[in-house]
Every structure is written in C-alpha cells, then in structure tokens.
Write a structure and sequence with these properties.
Blueprint (H helix, E strand, L loop, with lengths): L6 E4 L8 H10 L4 E6 L3 H14 L5 E6 L7 H10 L4 E4 L16 E4 L7 H14 L4 E5 H19 L4 E6 L15 H12 L5 E3 L9 H15 L20
Parallel strand pairs: 1-2, 1-8, 2-3, 3-4, 4-5, 5-6, 6-7, 7-8
Length: 249
C-alpha cells in the first residue's frame, strides 16, 4: 500500500505500554500503521526492545510520539529516540534544547502545541524551530489546532507548513472546541488539512479507550484512507478562506 494511504492508530487509546493492543486494533479496523506514545524513564528505554517486535507486525508505518518530559530528561529522551530509527513526534513547546534533536535528522516531526496561544506567536515558534532544525518535518495535530483557533488556524498551519507536512494527528483529547463553530468530525478535519496543503500525508487517529473498538472508528479509517488517496474527493463542504498574508511565501 503506498505511503499516501497510510492511516494508523495511536497507542494512547490503551495506555503507555499496551502496544500489542494498538497493533490488534489497527488490524481490526483495517488500519496499516501505529503511533506508539512513549514517556520518560523505564517505558521509554523499553522501546528499544519493543520496536523490533512491532516492526514484525506487518505494519506499513511505525512512529513514536514523545510525551511531556522534564527539561533535564530532554537529552536522554532524544538519545534513545534517535537510536530507534523511526519517525518521532515532539510537541514544539517541549523542544527546549533545539540542537540536541539534530541527530534525529528528518525523522523528527515537530507538532503544534496542544495549547497554541496567539497564532502569530505559534508561527514564530515553529519558524524558529524549523530554522534551527532544517531537516525536521511537521506533524499537524488537527484537533488541537481547531480547538485553539478553528478553521482559520487549522488551514493556515496546513498551508504555511505544507512543504514539511509529514503526519496528521486527529481525535486527540483537545477535540472539543470552545469556539462558536461546531466541532467537525475527524474526517472533516483531515479533509480540511489535506485540501489546504494540497497534498497527502500519513494520518494517525487517536481515540479514548471506550471507543477504540467501535464500528464508527472502522468507518472513519475507511473514509480517511479514501481522502488520503484523493484529497479532493470530498465536496460536501468548504473551509473558510484565509488572508493571503497567513501563508508562508
């Protein structure tokens, strides 16, 4: 299956070490990738034994998502993750020692923070990180972006960093938005990102444990796979336009 149709599940549904359940759920929902959520300490070091076993599970793609870690643990975290030789997602606000992450090279995917603050400040932060880490890619957490700024922020991020877009996450705990807009479903959020960026990227779906085995998730995976194949295939909605100065030159 080509990389443009990668749709996977996050292990956050099942707890920090229940990696085998994430693989089983991916197979049950006809997904072909897993994102392993990792934390510092023992569970992080255990990944050096876990990753080779997951590589044998028949997945098309495996990635890691670093959780929150203390500043003193940043170098150790990066050193272990760099050795694993798979894509690593790190939130922008967790990257303090920017040069420590260079050994991850193009496997490092910087994600928008879950609490974005002012859009202008978010753009400055991401630009500074990409200037310091020019090989890094971008992971757009679509649910967090929409919760922070609705469609304008979501589509602005997709357009501005389209040349770096390497993964899209959707369905996180930040999916509930306080904005006046009704919160779109995961499929609509991903469609908005892919349409704005005018390209495709691997998609990772996050779910709570009580919905991780639902039929709705299977339906969403099928719909997301179709959108990944053809981002323009969905014509039942349109996203608001953005001023021209909201995109990178």
């Amino acid at each position: 299956m080509p990389s443009s149709t990668v749709v996977g599940l996050s292990s956050t549904c099942f707890g920090s070490t229940a990696y085998h359940l994430a693989v089983l759920a991916a197979r049950a929902h006809h997904a072909n990738a897993v994102e392993v959520a990792c934390s510092t300490g023992g569970p992080l070091r255990d990944l050096e034994q876990v990753i080779p076993r997951l590589d044998l599970a028949g997945l098309d793609r495996l990635s890691l998502r670093a959780g929150h870690f203390e500043a003193g643990a940043e170098l150790e975290t990066e050193t272990i993750l760099a050795r694993l030789a798979v894509p690593v997602v790190v939130r922008a606000d967790c990257v303090r020692d920017r040069y420590a992450w260079r050994s991850c090279e193009n496997r490092l995917l910087i994600a928008n923070p879950t609490h974005a603050g002012r859009p202008h400040a978010l753009g400055e932060l991401l630009d500074e990180l990409f200037d310091a880490l020019p090989e890094a890619g971008f992971c757009l957490d679509a649910s967090a972006a929409f919760a922070a700024g609705g469609h304008p922020l979501l589509t602005a991020l997709a357009r501005r960093y389209a040349d770096r877009l390497a993964q899209i996450n959707v369905g996180s705990e930040y999916a509930s938005s306080p904005s006046a807009d009704s919160t779109p479903g995961d499929v609509d959020l991903v469609h908005a990102v892919l349409s704005a960026a005018d390209l495709s990227a691997p998609i990772v779906v996050e779910r709570s444990a009580d919905t991780a085995w639902s039929r709705k998730l299977s339906q969403d995976v099928v719909a997301l796979r179709e959108i990944a194949r053809n981002p323009r295939s969905r014509v039942d909605g349109a996203e608001p336009g953005l001023p021209s100065n909201s995109t990178r030159n």
